[in-house]
């Protein structure tokens, strides 16, 4: 059996230190028609590193005979940062700076949050704490380089510091050291002062983690200070909730008492659009994050669903059935100048803008039967069908503008195996990889602003909950546990 | 002692009588007997209590007579000289009593007024069914195929029945709810449910039912009728559901 392994490195994605290695076999069950297309389009003699369509550079790295070890593998394996060595970072617990009794609890919160942020970043390899020396540093004078830069820890970088409560304030000092560069080791030195509360200390941990991720992760800001908005029924009604990106600080925003769905935070984080069942039917409502209440937004009539912000925050796209059929519309951010983009038969919903350019909109249409994902220019022209079969919904545009994620049941129908899984598709080539496997129904993938993380809804735990993973499908972990939680929406920064 | 006194008295009287008889020698023609006193004329009275009843109720008729041998009340017949009786006439009645006796006859009467029954008591059993009841009985939900919003052939009978009822009851306003089974995705199902409701609405308006009476709303998969994971249950959830609007 011949298997061909190719690795494509997206040029503008290079900075993220993520690359995708895709292995496939034309004879395998999880049809790889698109892969075959790719194979046709890119002859194996294609010059190494040659640009394609001026957008993507494909590196055909390897054509090889695979051993029978791969036989029977029924899904495509992708890897994050394959071939790129991640920075080995040692993160000893921060130490208490003084003997204040509040220190212990705050240090626990800080150390847990800080470690999780760095561990979840996807760009660092944290050195296991069991390799650390007994003496851990709380400040620069306490660092002994050869205990860290040589095995067993063999760390390239060391993040350390201390925390202390004094005079009603908590002060955190943190450093990032390049321990292999002993003459000039300091990469970062930071001091944070805030009220001595759990929430404040958590925020400090997020801030310092983001500083480190920014420097060690190719200059892309971390997401430790970002938020996730979602729908939860834990109050008895489906309402809009918010939480920190790591699942902490979950709190209810809306109190409509009906059914509220599809939360979408504006790019500047000041407003949240969502769809809610009102006395007059489904309407788009606008919640002000500054005023903590609903603000005026016009009622369009008919059923109005799935609002989406343009990346400049000036426009909204949405689905409305005000003329009978559900169609994609675009209006100004205040609801004015509503105009229709699609005219097809069948439901058109779930628009989402190309968040890098704002020039295209991806959406879902049932015009040919089962829903499929399409793209079009933001003026409604040049509609392109992206998915070739099955049941494809919930497109979301990656921050780099080149990928879509979507929820796809590729084999759909009575007796067909498989469920709705999260897929990643390269828009130019329509090549896709499957990110989730064997985990029940998965839907509503949404990209983090760093382009490295994806949050989504999954029933893999038995009921709908919010989960997060890296964009290659690894580091999967659950963020919500109470009630049913759906339709996550990651803030823009 | 007393007996002796009586005996003495009787003896004295007997002696006196003999003496008198003996003294009255001359026999005279016996005096004609005094005419018997005229027999007393009868008396009669009759009353009824209460004197006003509603139809169906009863009253007590009471009468008294004296010196009468033959007492009768019209409508009742011969009765005892005095007595009482329950009566429940359907119309107002005058009870006329005639008491005849050797002393003549006497009449008396009393009137019992019967009022018509109160406004017909709450009509016993068959109330007019309300519009809402009729709506619930007659209007049939429309069921759909998976991922479809066109009205399939086996639903046409229900559709025609709905059209007929809603045409005949043009005062009824109603909501058509579009529902989907829970296998699809939330947002797409909302649009699909919207389309199902619109599809039913269009069939009604095409048949001449005013669109102003109809409100449509999609519930997508948010309000399932059935929660199980099988086709029978999914079919229950793929429907256009009619709701009476007060």
Please provide a written account of the structure.
The complex is a heterodimer of chains A (493) and B (246). Chain A has 493 residues and is mainly β. Chain A has 4 helices and 34 strands. Chain A folds into 3 domains: 2-70, no CATH class; 87-216, TolB, N-terminal domain (Rossmann fold), CATH 3.40.50.10070; 227-490, Neuraminidase (6 Propeller). Chain B starts with a helix and ends with a strand. In chain B, strand 10, helix 4 and strand 11 (214-220) form a beta-alpha-beta unit. The radius of gyration of chain B is 48 Å and the shape is rod-shaped. Chain B has helices at 2-23, 131-138, 156-168, 186-206, 231-237, and strands spanning 43-49, 52-54, 59-66, 70-73, 77-79, 83-87, 93-101, 104-115, 142-143, 173-179, 214-220, 239-245. Chain B has a 5-stranded mixed β-sheet with strand order 2-8-7-4-5, with no helix packed on it. In chain B, strands 9-12-10-11 form a 4-stranded mixed β-sheet. In chain B, strands 1-3-6 form a 3-stranded antiparallel β-sheet, with no helix packed on it. With 246 residues, chain B is of the alpha+beta class. Classes of the chains: A mainly beta (493), B alpha+beta (246).
């Amino acid at each position: 059996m011949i298997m061909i392994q190719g690795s494509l490195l997206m040029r503008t994605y290079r900075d993220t230190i993520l690359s995708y290695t895709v292995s496939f076999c034309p004879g395998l069950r999880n049809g790889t028609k698109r892969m075959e297309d790719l194979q046709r389009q890119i002859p194996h003699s294609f010059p190494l590193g040659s640009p394609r369509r001026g957008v993507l550079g494909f590196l055909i790295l390897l054509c090889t005979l695979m051993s029978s070890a791969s036989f029977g593998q029924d899904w495509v394996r992708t890897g994050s940062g394959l071939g790129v060595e991640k920075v080995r970072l040692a993160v000893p617990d921060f130490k208490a700076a003084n003997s204040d009794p509040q220190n212990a609890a705050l240090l626990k919160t800080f150390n847990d949050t800080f470690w999780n942020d760095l561990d979840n970043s996807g760009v660092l390899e944290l050195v296991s704490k069991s390799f650390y020396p007994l003496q851990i540093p709380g400040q620069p004078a306490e660092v002994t380089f050869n205990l860290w830069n040589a095995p067993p820890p063999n760390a390239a970088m060391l993040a350390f510091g201390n925390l202390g409560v004094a005079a009603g304030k908590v002060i955190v000092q943190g450093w990032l050291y390049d321990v292999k560069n002993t003459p000039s080791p300091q990469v970062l030195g930071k001091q944070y002062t805030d009220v001595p509360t759990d929430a404040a200390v958590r925020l400090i941990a997020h801030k310092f983690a983001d500083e480190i991720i920014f420097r060690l992760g190719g200059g892309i800001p971390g997401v430790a200070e970002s938020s996730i908005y979602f729908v939860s029924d834990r109050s008895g009604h489906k309402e809009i909730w918010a939480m920190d990106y790591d699942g902490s600080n979950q709190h209810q925003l809306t109190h409509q008492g009906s059914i509220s769905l599809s939360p979408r935070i504006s790019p500047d984080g000041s407003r949240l659009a969502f769809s809610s069942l009102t006395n007059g039917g489904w309407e788009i409502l606008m919640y002000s994050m500054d005023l903590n209440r609903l603000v005026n937004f016009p009622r369009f009539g008919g059923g109005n669903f799935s609002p989406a912000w343009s990346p400049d925050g000036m426009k909204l796209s949405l689905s409305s059935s005000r003329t009978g059929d559900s169609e994609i519309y675009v209006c100004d951010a205040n609801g004015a100048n509503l105009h229709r983009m699609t005219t097809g038969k069948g439901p058109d919903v779930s628009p989402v803008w190309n968040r890098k350019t704002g020039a295209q909109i991806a959406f879902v249409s049932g015009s040919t039967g089962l829903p499929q994902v399409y793209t079009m220019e933001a003026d409604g022209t040049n509609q392109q069908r992206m998915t070739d079969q099955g049941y494809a919904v919930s497109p979301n545009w990656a921050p780099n503008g080149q990928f879509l994620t979507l929820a796809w049941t590729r084999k759909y129908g009575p007796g067909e195996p498989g469920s709705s899984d999260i897929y990643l598709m390269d828009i130019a080539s329509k090549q896709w990889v499957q990110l989730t496997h064997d985990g029940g129904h998965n839907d509503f993938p949404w990209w983090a602003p760093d382009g490295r993380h994806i949050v989504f809804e999954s029933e893999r735990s038995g009921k709908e909950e919010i989960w997060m993973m890296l964009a290659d499908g690894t580091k999967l972990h659950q963020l919500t546990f109470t009630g049913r939680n759906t339709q996550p929406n990651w803030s823009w920064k | 002692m007393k007996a002796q006194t009586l005996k003495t008295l009787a003896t004295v009287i007997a002696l006196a009588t003999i003496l008198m008889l003996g003294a009255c020698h001359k026999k005279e023609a016996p005096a004609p007997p005094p005419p018997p006193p005229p027999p007393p004329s009868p008396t009669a009275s009759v009353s009824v209590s209460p004197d006003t009843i509603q139809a169906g109720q009863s009253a007590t008729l009471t009468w008294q007579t004296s010196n009468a041998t033959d007492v009768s009340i019209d409508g009742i017949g011969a009765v005892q000289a005095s007595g009482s009786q329950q009566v429940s006439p359907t119309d107002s009645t005058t009870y006329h009593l005639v008491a005849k006796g050797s002393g003549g006859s006497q009449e008396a009467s009393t009137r019992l007024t019967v009022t018509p029954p109160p406004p017909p008591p709450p009509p016993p059993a068959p109330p007019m069914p309300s519009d809402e009841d009729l709506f619930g009985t007659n209007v049939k939900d429309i069921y759909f195929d998976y991922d479809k919003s066109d009205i399939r052939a086996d639903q046409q009978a229900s559709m025609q029945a709905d059209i007929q009822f809603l045409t005949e009851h043009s005062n009824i306003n109603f909501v058509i709810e579009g529902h989907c089974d829970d296998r699809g995705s939330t947002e797409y199902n909302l649009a699909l449910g919207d389309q199902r409701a619109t599809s039913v609405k269009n069939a009604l308006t095409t048949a001449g039912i005013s669109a102003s009476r109809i409100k449509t709303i999609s519930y997508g998969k948010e309000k399932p009728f059935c929660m199980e994971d099988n086709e029978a249950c999914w079919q229950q959830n793929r429907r256009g559901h009619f709701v009476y609007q007060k």
